[in-house]
Amino acid sequence: MRLDSKYFDRIRTRRKREQEAEQAPPTCQWDGCDKKGSHRAPVGRNAEGQFFLFCFEHVKEYNKGYNYFSGLSDGEIARYQKEAITGHRPTWTVGVNKAAKDSPLHSEVRSGAYTRVRDPFGFVKEGGGKGSGPRFPQARKLKSLESKAFDTMGLHANATSAEIKSRYKELVKKHHPDANGGDRGSEERFRAVIQAYQLLKQNGFC
Q: Which residue numbers delimit the J domain (predicted)?
C-alpha cells in the first residue's frame, strides 16, 4: 500500500488529544477561607452521607465543636444509644413467640402424653385453672413399656408426679432386701420397681 493511498488516510490513527487540564480542587467551605478543601467533615444528624469540605486547619476546628447529638434531650440520647446496640432494628422480648411458648416438652412428645387438641380455657386440666392440675392431659396414650411400668408400681395412667414418687418410696421401703431378710422374691420385686420408676422418670412422668 502506497503512503499516499486514500485507504491509508482512512486508517491512519488520529493524534492523541492533549490531556485536559485537571479540574481545580474545591475551595474550603469555611467562611473567608480560599484554601484547598480536601478534608471531609460530616454535616450532622439526619444528613448521613453528606459532608463539608474544609482545609486541614478548619476541619480540625470544625471537629472540635462537632456534636452528633446536638439538640437532643438526655432521654432521646439514651434511647438512641440503646437502639444502636441492635443496629436500630426492631426487637422482641423473650416469650413473645406464643407457638414456642405453648409447644410441648420433649418428654411429653416421647411419652405420647401430648395431644394436639387445643385447650385455651384449660378444661382438660384438673381444676380448670392454669397450673392447678397435672402437667399431662387426663387421657394418656401410653407405650407398652410405660403401661407395664405403671402396672408394676400399682398406679393408674393418670397418676401425678407426686403420686409416682410417693409410691416409689413406699415400694422401695417395703421390698428392700434388708427389710425382708434377703427374701429372693422380694429382691426381684425391688429391682422391678426401680426399673419401672427410672423408665417413668426418663419419659417425663415424674
A: 148-205
pTM of the complete model: 0.34
Provide the residue-wise pLDDT of the chain in tens; the chain has 206 residues. 566 666 655 655 555 554 455 567 789 988 889 898 889 988 887 777 888 899 999 999 888 888 877 777 888 888 878 877 877 677 666 655 555 555 655 555 555 555 555 566 666 554 444 444 445 444 567 888 998 999 999 998 889 999 999 999 998 888 887 777 767 777 888 889 999 999 998 888 88
173 and 90 within one domain: no
Residue 129 within a domain: no
* Domain membership of residue 29 as a residue range: 24-124
* SS3 per-residue string spanning 29-90: CCCCCCCECCEEEECCCCCCCCEEEECHHHHHHHHHCCCCCCCCCHHHHHHHHHHHCCCCCC
